[in-house]
Design brief:
heterodimer; A: alpha+beta; SH3 type barrels; six-stranded antiparallel β-sheet; B: about 75% helix; about 0% strand; elongated
Chain lengths: ~100, ~475
């Protein structure tokens, strides 16, 4: 059952700005035109494949990954494409 | 740590690096490999440098860069960055052991609370109340200032200096340069050391604690949306918060903002609507007689801040700033770090700002001696009656330009003499808060933003302060709130 659910979810690609507080997701790619912001995100350690948890969505987005937290605005959040993961698949992936 | 760690990139990038390296001369401070990699990432500084240094081969180099770019569908800086990131992950994987405890600590709960829109604002108000009002306002501007001023300066230093200069200099007019009412030593030095230094010192202490605890990025996160409306982004909380300590230092710190637009808008707002700690201390003391007046003053100044920021963002078009920041864990600051930072900032204050203040005292002396000040005071009479203030208050505003708190202190004297009623005190404090920055801040504005922008900001602030004062005066009279 869980397997099926996570396989279905894998197809869902959505902007990070649509995630709810507490959700887990994997970063897929960046759709931003601003190269310096892209470089900055990279240097902060957000790359495709990074598994993140959404900590806050208002007034700004705060995400958590590894042991870091990063805050950014809605414009950046909507240019990060992610794949929604559920708890089971995240734990499966990180061990 | 034995041997050199070497990163290997994608074949096509490695190939380009080798070809470019062969074309470069030996005159760079970085290795040829590093220069080539930066060229591929289109680093502006390095590209300019190579264009100037290796003129003959530059065309060939840029065609290699172009060709390599075409081979990837992502920017090369991204491709190279990704490889570096993977490599960094491998290194940490090998050398770092993680504690896999998942228990939520007190610090992480508190961290969440600081970033929640409601509890975050409550925490901010607590920080302001205890940090700024209680510690800086009551302890710094009250207890320490009273002690230094009344006991040390009025009790020992000033009488001693006055006696020395009366013996050394026979002419009263020249004695007045150093001692007596407006003397560089008895007034300038006393103000700098006994009034301003304790206030900015306690402020810098609180600011260093806040800075080291990791609170500022959380504050930035809370205000980003509002700051976007005024053409700034969350990052600007750092200069803005510092402005409550010393506007001069804060204006220098606007350097850290990214675009010219953000720098200009924040310089303007610092000059207009952020009262520095010295000014705050005196204004709070004046308004403490009426809680209602205090609230009106706060709301009115905050509204001016937002209104002018909002208009400035519309009138000064530019790229919308994007906001991102790392949020460090909340930590208990190390006392030694806090103290050394506070001392460094106080030292900066003494070295950079005090000479300007002493210079201002000399100008005040010349102004009094030549009668230029009396002319200015008279010229300002119509402006004073326009905003419903007695003509005596003109002097306070003129002094206010030389030192914001001189102005506030001047008003304080008028209040104690019973010349101003509470409505006039409120109007005068509001004008003084908005009114031109002090000489030191103005000097830094010229240095950082250029003479033209600085003059433009100063004249706008002058007109806005008095216009806002007149509006406030009329509103107060019509509504009868105060």
């Amino acid at each position: 059952m869980t397997m099926l659910k996570s396989e279905n979810r894998e197809e869902v690609v959505l902007p990070l700005s649509q995630l709810k507080k507490g959700s887990l997701a994997e970063v897929l790619r960046f759709d931003m035109t601003d190269r310096s912001t892209l470089r900055k995100l990279l240097s902060l350690g957000i790359v495709p494949g990074t598994k993140i948890r959404v900590v806050h969505t208002f007034p700004s987005y705060v995400i958590e990954f590894d042991s870091s937290q990063i805050v950014f605005d809605k414009t950046i959040a909507s240019s990060i494409r992610v794949r929604l993961l559920d708890n089971a698949s995240l734990e499966g992936a990180s061990t | 740590m034995s041997g050199q760690h070497r990163l290997v990139y994608d074949e096509r990038i490695e190939d380009a690096v080798n070809r470019i390296s062969a074309l470069l001369s030996d005159s760079y401070f970085l290795s040829k490999r590093a220069v080539s990699l930066l060229l591929l990432q289109e680093d502006e500084d390095i590209t300019q440098l190579v264009e100037a240094t290796d003129r003959s081969s530059y065309e060939e180099i840029s065609s290699i860069v172009e060709e390599t770019k075409q081979a990837f569908d992502r920017p090369l800086s991204y491709v190279i960055g990704l490889t570096m990131h993977e490599d960094a992950l491998n290194i940490t994987e090998r050398s770092v052991t993680r504690n896999r405890k998942m228990r939520r600590s007190f610090a992480s709960v508190l961290s969440d609370l600081t970033m929640h829109p409601i509890s975050g604002i409550i925490i901010l108000l607590l920080v302001l109340y205890f940090g700024l009002y209680k510690f800086v306002g009551e302890f710094g501007a009250g207890t320490i200032v009273d002690f230094l001023e009344e006991n040390i300066f009025e009790g020992y230093i000033n009488p001693f200096l006055t006696r020395v200069f009366e013996v050394l200099i026979p002419w009263r007019w020249l004695q007045e340069l150093f001692v007596h009412e407006y003397g560089v030593l008895t007034l300038g030095m006393r103000y700098a050391i006994a009034i301003i230094l304790p206030i900015v010192g306690t402020f810098f202490l609180v600011f260093s604690i806040i800075e080291d605890s990791g609170y500022l990025p959380r504050l930035a996160m809370l205000v980003d949306r509002i700051f976007k409306k005024i053409g700034l982004n969350g990052r600007a909380v750092i200069p803005m918060t510092l402005g409550f300590g010393c506007g001069t230092m804060a204006t220098i710190v606007t350097r850290t903002l990214e675009s010219k637009r953000e720098k200009v808008i924040s310089t303007l707002l610092l000059a207009l609507a952020i009262p520095c700690s010295a000014q705050l201390g005196v204004i709070l003391a004046m308004l403490s007689v009426s809680f209602r007046a205090l609230v009106i003053w706060m709301v009115f100044v905050a509204l001016s801040f937002l209104l002018v920021g909002f208009l400035a963002a519309r009138l000064y078009p530019g790229k919308k700033p994007s906001f991102y920041m790392e949020v460090p864990p909340l930590r208990i600051p190390k006392i030694s770090n806090v103290l050394s930072k506070t001392l460094a900032r106080m030292k900066w204050y003494l070295v950079e700002v005090i000479p300007i203040f002493l210079g201002a005292s000399v100008i005040i002396w010349i102004g009094n001696l030549t009668g230029a000040f009396n002319l200015l005071v008279r010229a300002l009479h119509p402006v004073m009656s326009f905003v419903g203030l007695p003509s005596e208050s003109a002097q306070a505003f003129i002094f206010g330009f030389f030192r914001r708190d001189y102005g506030a202190a001047g008003l304080y004297d008028l209040q104690r003499a019973g010349i101003l009623d509470i409505r006039q005190i409120l109007v005068a404090s509001t004008i003084l808060t908005l009114f031109v920055p002090c000489v030191a801040q103005f000097a830094v504005m010229i240095k950082e933003r250029g003479l033209k922008t600085a003059l433009w900001i100063a004249s706008f602030v002058f007109v806005f302060a008095f216009a806002a004062g007149a509006v406030l005066n009329v509103v107060l009279q019509v509504t009868g709130i105060l």
